[in-house]
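Note to self: keep these together.
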Amino acid sequence: MTRHHIAFGFLVLFWVSIFGCSQEEGATSQNSDSDGDSDSDGDSDSDGDSDSDGDTDSDGDTDSDGDTDSDGDSDSDGDSDSDGDTDSDGDSDADGDSDSDGDSDSDGDCNAIGFHLDGTRILDANCNEFVMRGANVAHAWYPSNTQSSFVDIAGVGGNIVRVVMATGGQWSRTDGSQIANIIKWAKENELVAMLEVHDCTGSGEKAEAKDPSTCLAYWIESDIMDAIQGEEAFVMINIANEAFGNSTSPEDWAGFYKGAVSRLREFGLKHLLVVDAPNWGQDWEWTMRDGDGTQAIFNADPNRNTIFSIHMYQVFEQASTVTDYITKFVGRGLPLIVGEFAADHGNSGDVAEEAILSICEEKRVGYVGWSWSGNGSGLESLDITVNFDVNNLTPWGNTLINDANGISNTGDVCSIF
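Structure:
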């Protein structure tokens, strides 16, 4: 409190004592604010297969080795009110969520249990904005490198890891005890963990891909639930990696995810949910960007706590395509991240990676580069490090980390740590 506040207080007391007036106080808050390869038409190629070493092979697929509050509802005006829900103007009120100026308030009074949304922005459990800057880590194929990779990603300024896991459908199942360790290692390094399962990648087109329903079922298996419940402040759930190839209709994509988000909420999961685009994540038909299904998926979540993820590879060779996609999507008022991207997709084509970094910083859109290390023959250029060595960055890794809009220059540790 300043001297001016004290003087003003005495003036008010003097006024009341002399004139017997009363004043109604108005409370004002001072808030502060991959794999599926695409061919020349931008589609994933017809085999979409992964080779036996488990890394991303030349066709672009990866092979075998390698908040809402307690009631979770939205109130009638749509804004986060004292119960933690979001009302129509998308702002949170004096309970610690962002207020009308769109920024997090300064009193720290926040009732959120985990990550939640304010319009297109992601807020953490302290109701502060969280903009993802990080890397994908292939735990399912290289589990012995996971912990050290987390240390190194945090060391270069990352604030999130997107962790490749498996249901047991194609690769060894990532069980609850492994997930508990993944979360523990992430916390130790002040990293948020976005968990995803890879077994359904390219379903409908790739013979080995499991039905997306199996990826959905994984999250509600007892050991998985035990590991992730109570971790809403530190964990996001990416339901299924690139679960639909090029042969799935927009209606099937939207229909599956409408049911998926509803199902996970029925089982009591309150985490921020992440939905990958169709077309092997690249959305080259613009189904997720322009279609009605995206809003329908968001509305199917009773918590209104679902974000959407685009994977940018050779479909996004031109900077104009990148800028147009992100600008149009965010313009819909829906939350978007770039969940995978690199500087190229091997022989399939180049990627406008610097444009991705730039527009994501401009629009406050999160990004997660693919991948820390271990991509297969023909796709080594997608590695961020050479053989998991943070002191030996690839050209792509140097750009992702050291560009003016890269991880080391724009990444902020989540305020929950």
